[in-house]
Amino acid sequence: MKNTFGQSVACTLFGESHGSEIGIVIDGLAPGIDVDEDFISSQLSLRRPKGRISTARREADEYRIVSGVFEGKTTGSAICILIPNSDTKSKDYSSTRMLARPGHADYSANCKYHGFEDYRGGGHFSGRITAPLVAAGAIAISALSKKGIYIGTHIKECAGVSDVSFTNIAQDIKKLGSMEFAVLSEEKAALMQSAILDAANDGDSVGGVLETAAIGVPAGVGEPWFDSVESVLSHILFSIPGIKGVQFGLGFDFATKRGSDANDSFQMENGKVITKTNNNGGINGGITNGMPIVFSCVVKPTPTIYKTQQTVDFINGKDAEITVQGRHDPAIIHRARVVVDSVTALALCDMLSQRYGTDWLAN
Amino acid sequence: MKNTFGQSVACTLFGESHGSEIGIVIDGLAPGIDVDEDFISSQLSLRRPKGRISTARREADEYRIVSGVFEGKTTGSAICILIPNSDTKSKDYSSTRMLARPGHADYSANCKYHGFEDYRGGGHFSGRITAPLVAAGAIAISALSKKGIYIGTHIKECAGVSDVSFTNIAQDIKKLGSMEFAVLSEEKAALMQSAILDAANDGDSVGGVLETAAIGVPAGVGEPWFDSVESVLSHILFSIPGIKGVQFGLGFDFATKRGSDANDSFQMENGKVITKTNNNGGINGGITNGMPIVFSCVVKPTPTIYKTQQTVDFINGKDAEITVQGRHDPAIIHRARVVVDSVTALALCDMLSQRYGTDWLAN
Amino acid sequence: MKNTFGQSVACTLFGESHGSEIGIVIDGLAPGIDVDEDFISSQLSLRRPKGRISTARREADEYRIVSGVFEGKTTGSAICILIPNSDTKSKDYSSTRMLARPGHADYSANCKYHGFEDYRGGGHFSGRITAPLVAAGAIAISALSKKGIYIGTHIKECAGVSDVSFTNIAQDIKKLGSMEFAVLSEEKAALMQSAILDAANDGDSVGGVLETAAIGVPAGVGEPWFDSVESVLSHILFSIPGIKGVQFGLGFDFATKRGSDANDSFQMENGKVITKTNNNGGINGGITNGMPIVFSCVVKPTPTIYKTQQTVDFINGKDAEITVQGRHDPAIIHRARVVVDSVTALALCDMLSQRYGTDWLAN
Amino acid sequence: MKNTFGQSVACTLFGESHGSEIGIVIDGLAPGIDVDEDFISSQLSLRRPKGRISTARREADEYRIVSGVFEGKTTGSAICILIPNSDTKSKDYSSTRMLARPGHADYSANCKYHGFEDYRGGGHFSGRITAPLVAAGAIAISALSKKGIYIGTHIKECAGVSDVSFTNIAQDIKKLGSMEFAVLSEEKAALMQSAILDAANDGDSVGGVLETAAIGVPAGVGEPWFDSVESVLSHILFSIPGIKGVQFGLGFDFATKRGSDANDSFQMENGKVITKTNNNGGINGGITNGMPIVFSCVVKPTPTIYKTQQTVDFINGKDAEITVQGRHDPAIIHRARVVVDSVTALALCDMLSQRYGTDWLAN
């Protein structure tokens, strides 16, 4: 399905870094959901580069909703959101068109598209295409919050610095909501930003780990086997450029545990079934168990760096050197976290609408 | 799509642990692919429990191909493979039906299926349902090998013991093919098995990490965004019970790298573009770059243990204790690796058939 | 998606005329639906050839439910139903393997499958593969009836003889339910059967038109554009071999009407919105309006006839003659009607489950 | 999948009659296809209302391609085409908002969308949304023509007047290409137009039948069962507003034929297999046989008429009268034919790309 994801609630993504507009179609959202245009703007703002730890490309992200919203509410038909590209400098890229930037899609895209791809600024592969995902995700996040479902992501680790863990997830999610640099510990946030600047000063870049929690999802959502909650979430999370690993609950730390340590004991609490620990990240057998859904994603260091690198000229088939020009981010992890929240919300809307029907989100 | 995965080549899985048969339908495989029934048997044998490090349930796995194969070759129509359940002891489970086994799907399944689920032996959630995946995967693995595409998985880590890394991937894959306990280092294999037995003696279980490589996949396969190779592979990998994390290339180790260390430099080798390192696991921008596809999965410790655990009686809504009876595995990682190979092969067949057409696999 | 149809409730079909078994997987039906095995048998019996107006091939259709049903109810996981092929006479077909039977799929299948298709008895193209659709449809029909939704089909026209129209649809559906030869007028039924026998005596065959009504479907089901009720129903109806036309409401008779005659006026009746006429067959803008869904399908004359026909030997690329041997039907329309009911029920279950959620059918 | 159709080549449609823009995303077209913007304009022009036999709403249809096209060729990523709505008169509709226009989707849409639908000018249900389908179809038609595949549609019947039949299909398709009123016989065209004007003068409307042929499609395309060529084409054809019947080859005329008359004899012609007649419309067993694909669609009379009609006020639940104001078409059949060509081309691109791979259309 290439550029379309989802079954009951589906997103179709389009656009290139230097085209006139980029955008998304969200299809299948219930009719009657409030569309809060200010919230969309503020979410887009969280994704937007800012300050010295981000690229100098500055986009206003003045999105337009072209369809599917009427008198401030979703109509139930497909919503198309467009975001114009304004601050494009195409000349930056043309001279290095045949040089495969290491860590980027230039070479693999050329193998796939045979040279017809729009190569300017990463074209369809540009991280900029995540902006429409964020706009769509904002509608989904709003709708979910009306149903008592909240999502939050913090930078768990960046450039060797680790944040503190979630303590009270509901409060932590609330706190993270509008933070520009979403780290639970202020002190750790400062250390991370300083490490990012160090890398930037070296013409280099850093990566990190994002940890996400979603609360309020009812037990019984998801499928055994192919459409497990893990399958569906990882599918859309791995769609975000730069994400190279996804783990649920303890994730790779399960490798060193024994079953007796890893299993989450069930217990009754106020007439409700909960688990004592949440090592499985709220998912058993691919299906939610009512506990917070917890997962983390690793974001690789931004591949664009200012150091000279070995590469090939893939058009002429010979070795070459590349010194990348243009405007780039020494870190994208702080911008990526709102993308993670957004795609999580979209995937949850899809799973919930499949389970409870197409009107559920608005009821 | 629940129990169906794939677009050009799609699998539909069915069955319960204690039903008469379990099975799979594989649809969309090219006509004219050789079906090697002995190879299917030998792959099923690799998945089958054996020795003291596995459950005492012993199944013959005498599969039958019901459709889609004629005179030893695929016809191009849907292939149904059935595997009878013979060694079922349903009485083992009935008395604990209302007790949620920690780490299992009993409670979440009950929330989803409202008590109508077949609870015997884990029902549709049983690891036993991976047997049809292995049978189907065997046909896919055979077909891919004719096209020069090979897949292999080793136990990278188990119970605190780490295997050596891949050195010569092509040779390593060959070596791993028929190993009962797929570890590259014999010495490490012995240590792992001993650690599994230790856990078994304690009535406990262990997990681990599987690392997989696929070679020979042409550059240019996969999609940007929603159907990235990472998205598609992780989707099906997370369908395997017990897998809680998937990472490509360096995976979570990217978190501590800088871009200059993480980027894979391109270079020419014998007129072909390769990368010097393969930190991205053969995938750039969601699309293969011609290097080996490398990923790893964490397998959580088998949730069934012989120790008494706290839990709830979810039918009567009260706290309870559970001491699981029945036959179980102290580790499943050595059995899971053939499942990982199988689903990888099925997903690759799908992506390749989408790209090159429905006849490609047989040409 | 080839052999899979549906989104929330999906069917996957497999099997060949002379394989060991044919079957279907139905995925996504709500947990807790009663599975009435006698009703499945009686529906299969309606499809089964009988008497002198049908093929001499007699199959017991002793189906087995392999998965997804537990203690007489659906579990919510995938249901696999198998039907053995017992009365196969493969030798009938081998000598004419290279001769394209006019009106059949032999030649087009050979172009698609390059000679690897199972050619015996029509292989995967055999009308026999509709038996699993009927078995699956029986479960769907039962489930719908619990929700007040009923489906019925009569032979509107056969061999130049027309049946009377629906008068009281609810009563007519009830009456048609168990009829072997589903014609509303007994007199017309006799004329049709006599015309079929005439054709049979000439070594020839006849076609006809089936008209179907579904009552009780709530208003507001379906989608504008691509998943209109007409789109979804026609998609599955055209999957039935021999169906070459589908029309809703007045269908092709709309061509000669003016808008003022064709439009269905709305009116209130007992506080409910109805239409005075039902020219649109219960569907406006692709969405149900609460009136009976009414459509008709044309079934072409069975292509297998006993007369000698001109054809080609497509393996050797030369003109040839064919005189078909074997057992065949002079008409299939009376057998096809239960297939039409079945696929209609399956498609409705899918559309209703998408709209109201996966539990709705059982509530 | 609601507003998305297709697997390898997929279209996502969005927009409302009185929104700022309507549009489509076409995903999966091969990279390197020439995009002829003039041809897109001329196809849009064929759909556009003109003269006295069409609505007075006049739209410039100045489309913009927002993504997926670079330097005049498809890039291989998703193509978004936008068409602004300029000539909207929203005040025409607001006063009759609660009155269900007979034959329209107002009432059924209200049942589905609970009043949140954009009701102005038919909203998402407006025939205007076919404009983006035509723009997308134009790219598909161009691409197919480079592969020797041509599609043409004529008005076979309108207001009781019948056109002559196809004689030389290749020449007829060529001739029909740019005709404003696509009738093979000039004389019949004049009679039809006169009959449409008669209806218009009466404040009424007419319907008709469109007949389509596609030549050059290789034998062996399509699937048995659920994705038969008939299933896929009818699915998208029934998505066009006003189409209430689809038939292939002889269609409903099969009902009165015997097998010996209906079967298409095969014969060799210049070393190629052809059929003597083409009663099956180029499709056997759901799969193309290399003969022209021939089908026809009935278009119901435009539901909007100027006569006063009985209806209901569905908000207040009472009987009412409606006299529709605004600008409307006494016939849409001459405009619909380019929509039929367009969706046929899109569906063929999808089926061909599935079969031969994603690059085939551009090779």
Strand order, largest beta sheet of chain A = 1-2-3-7-4
Using a beta-carbon cutoff below 8 angstroms, give the protein chain pair with the largest interface and the number of residues from each chain: A-B, 110 and 110 residues
Strand content of chain A: 15-25%
Total beta strands of chain A: 18
Q: What is the CATH third-level topology name of chain A?
A: Chorismate synthase, AroC fold
Describe the protein's architecture and organization.
4 copies of one chain form a homotetramer. The model of chain A has no long low-confidence stretch (mean pLDDT 94). The first copy, chain A, has 363 residues and is an alpha+beta fold. Chain A has a single domain (4-362), classed as Chorismate synthase AroC (Chorismate synthase, AroC fold), CATH 3.60.150. In chain A, 28% of the residues lie in helices and 23% in strands. In chain A, the strands form 6 sheets. In chain A, strands 1-2-3-7-4 form a 5-stranded antiparallel sheet, with helices on one face. In chain A, strands 9-8-10-16-11 form a 5-stranded antiparallel sheet. A two-stranded antiparallel ribbon of chain A has the order 5-6. Chain A is globular, with a radius of gyration of 21 Å. In chain A, helix 1 packs across helix 9 and helix 7 packs antiparallel against helix 9. Chain A has helices at 37-47, 91-94, 106-113, 130-146, 169-176, 186-201, 229-237, 259-262, 333-356, and strands at residues 4-5, 10-14, 21-27, 64-67, 69-70, 73-74, 79-84, 150-158, 161-162, 208-215, 243-248, 266-269, 272-275, 283-284, 287-288, 293-299, 309-313, 318-322. Chains in contact: A-B, A-C, A-D, B-C, B-D, C-D. Chains A and B meet through strand 1, helix 3, helix 7, strand 11 and helix 8 of A and strand 1, helix 3, helix 7, strand 11 and helix 8 of B.
